[in-house]
Amino acid sequence: GENVEQHPSTLSVQEGDSAVIKCTYSDSASNYFPWYKQELGKGPQLIIDIRSNVGEKKDQRIAVTLNKTAKHFSLHITETQPEDSAVYFCAPHGGATNKLIFGTGTLLAVQP
Amino acid sequence: DGGITQSPKYLFRKEGQNVTLSCEQNLNHDAMYWYRQDPGQGLRLIYYSQIVNDFQKGDIAEGYSVSREKKESFPLTVTSAQKNPTAFYLCASSKLPGQANTEAFFGQGTRLTVV
User: Fold this and answer.
1) What is the pLDDT of residue B115?
2) Residues A45, B106: C-beta atoms closer than 8 Å
3) Does pLDDT of B95 surpass 80?
4) Strand pairing partners for A54?
């Protein structure tokens, strides 16, 4: 089945610094690459996504880059703020399976 | 407002009891999912459904059961066979993979505690 890993599992940065989280997947047929943000006690929410015909997408302070050959995609957050502190999950899918599998999660802590 | 609703928000269960968690969506999504989240952990897939009257086991289906009698509803029953049911349960829905905009929408979760 699909194997999805995220690195790092925890990330602590100073306010204003950049943060990068990487997601590695195994299903080469995946064609949709989203990132979700989960705040404490809530369900995850989509923050940015990219499809396999695009290599990079940016939305204000967040961006996603995709390397389909190497089967990984990354979340980039610039000028981090304390409200960016949360758990972030990737969920690549659209491939051979209809299962929606999430990555292992990354806890981001932005220190004021 | 369109969305996905889980109830109750908090649920307490005595050992040996079955309990059912509700999940309803009015987004006209075909796919629905149930996940379990333990403290500091990721989302583990319990069951998923792509169409009414059909569902598949996820990675940790033992001790759980589901039904999909209506497109809008996907209730999860935690049975007495689930040895460690205390966790945060999340329900999600989406369009089918392969369609446009397959973003997953989540409910607010149900926190189940065995007492």
Assistant:
1) 86
2) yes
3) yes
4) none
